[in-house]
């Protein structure tokens, strides 16, 4: 299909050149031939690749599978075109890298890193320490009992050191600890996710240790604490306190990752208040997992069609979000979508598509893309 389009534009180009060669009067007409016809909006506006659009503000990234990081696929082409940063969606998580103790599986992660290197993209590492997608042997012995602090610590150290050392020259930033804080409790007193095996074994001190191990393995890497619901007061204050404690104790932490699994009705004030608060910590901020499902709530009936209403909601929401992010681009050092286009997202359910990105299921710019483009251009 793509070749066919190329041929059509090639024929037009050839005709223009052939025609003008036969004429002695007129100079070559100023016909601009777009590289990719589908990037044109109705009104004739050409989509600027995202990485160009945001180049004065921050790297723009996508979370990917190893299969997508392949220049021979549509996903690979879209990645090359639009993104300046890349995150492994799953294959750098503990259960993917070291499912069995002592046996590492590097293939998927290596493919992503290699693709990024060949295409001059940054790589964010995700994630070193998490209660989820982590093999049981990191927490439990063969009888299912929690490991001792000593054994669990040795294993955590070995894992972090091995992984960070391997990608020392390639991964510039790591989500060292993911989602260690309790989400919400009615009385607001539970700080840490106490049901995490990490917490059960160590209390909160594993967080400090993980950052130290990562820093020792690569003193140049930017080290992040990453969490969701981070723009709500009950969560952001816990993140603030945690990061402040780490910094006060000289633990090497450089940034906070706001996952950014937001909603179309996400409050602008919540985002601004959070960014203002974290600015006071003197750390970098990255939006690490941005996606915006089209629904107002989890109970709104699902659709498999991208309606005008969905498009309207996303235009409003994404414009607001990027307007805010540009306002804080002095502290925001990266924005990553948790996927490439609407064809692949963890948010889809049978009969209920989420359509959460700027690129559609064919990885072409949606109307909301052009709305964001207009916004960014107005800020340049
Ligand atoms: C969390 C994790 C990610 C990913 C997403 C959803 O936010 O940090 O690794 O699992 O959930 O898939």
UniProtKB/TrEMBL annotation:
Question: Which SUPFAM superfamilies does this UniProt record tie to the protein?
Answer: (Trans)glycosidases (SSF51445)
Q: Does the keyword Hydrolase apply?
A: yes
Q: What is its EC number?
A: 3.2.1.8
**Which ranges carry the GH10 domain?**
44-375
**Reaction(s) catalysed by this chain's protein:** Endohydrolysis of (1->4)-beta-D-xylosidic linkages in xylans
Sorted UniProt keywords? Carbohydrate metabolism, Glycosidase, Hydrolase, Polysaccharide degradation
SMART domains, from UniProt? Answer: Glyco_10 (SM00633)
Task: Respond yes or no to whether keyword Hydrolase is given for this record.
Answer: yes
Give the annotated active site.
289
Q: Which InterPro entries match?
A: GH, GH10, GH10_AS, GH10_dom
Q: Which family does it belong to?
A: Belongs to the glycosyl hydrolase 10 (cellulase F) family.
Q: Which PANTHER family match?
A: ENDO-1,4-BETA-XYLANASE A, GLYCOSYL HYDROLASE
**Name this protein carries in UniProt:** Beta-xylanase
């Amino acid at each position: 299909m793509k070749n066919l389009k190329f041929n059509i534009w090639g024929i037009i180009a050839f005709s223009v050149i052939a025609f003008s060669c036969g004429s002695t009067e007129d100079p070559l007409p100023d016909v601009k031939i777009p590289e990719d016809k589908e990037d044109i909006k109705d009104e004739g506006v050409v989509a600027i690749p995202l990485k160009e659009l945001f180049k004065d503000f921050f790297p723009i990234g996508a979370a990917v599978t190893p299969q997508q990081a392949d220049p021979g696929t549509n996903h690979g082409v879209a990645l090359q075109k639009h993104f300046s940063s890349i995150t492994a969606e799953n294959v750098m998580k503990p259960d993917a890298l070291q499912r069995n103790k002592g046996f590492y599986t590097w293939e998927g992660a290596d493919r992503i890193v290699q693709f990024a290197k060949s295409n001059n993209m940054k790589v964010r590492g995700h994630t070193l320490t998490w209660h989820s997608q982590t093999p049981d042997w990191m927490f439990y012995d063969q009888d299912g009992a929690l490991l001792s602090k000593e054994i669990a610590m040795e294993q955590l150290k070995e894992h972090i050191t091995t992984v960070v050392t391997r990608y020392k020259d390639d991964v510039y930033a790591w989500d060292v600890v993911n989602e260690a804080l309790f989400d919400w409790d009615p009385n607001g007193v539970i700080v840490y996710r106490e049901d995490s095996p990490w917490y059960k074994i160590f209390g909160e001190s594993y967080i400090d240790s993980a950052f130290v191990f990562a820093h020792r393995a690569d003193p140049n890497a930017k080290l992040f604490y990453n969490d969701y619901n981070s723009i709500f007061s009950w969560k952001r204050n816990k993140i603030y306190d945690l990061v402040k404690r780490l910094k006060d104790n000289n633990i090497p932490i450089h940034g906070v990752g706001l996952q950014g699994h937001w909603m179309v009705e996400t409050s602008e004030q919540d985002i601004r208040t959070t960014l203002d608060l974290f600015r006071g910590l003197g750390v970098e901020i990255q939006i690490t997992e941005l996606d915006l499902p089209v629904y107002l709530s989890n109970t709104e009936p699902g659709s498999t069609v991208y309606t005008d209403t969905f498009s309207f909601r996303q235009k409003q929401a994404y414009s607001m979000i990027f307007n805010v992010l540009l306002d804080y681009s002095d502290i925001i050092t990266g924005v990553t979508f948790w996927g490439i286009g609407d064809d692949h997202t963890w948010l889809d359910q049978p009969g209920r598509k989420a359509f959460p990105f700027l690129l559609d299921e064919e990885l072409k710019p949606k109307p909301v893309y052009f709305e964001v483009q207009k916004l960014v251009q107005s800020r340049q």
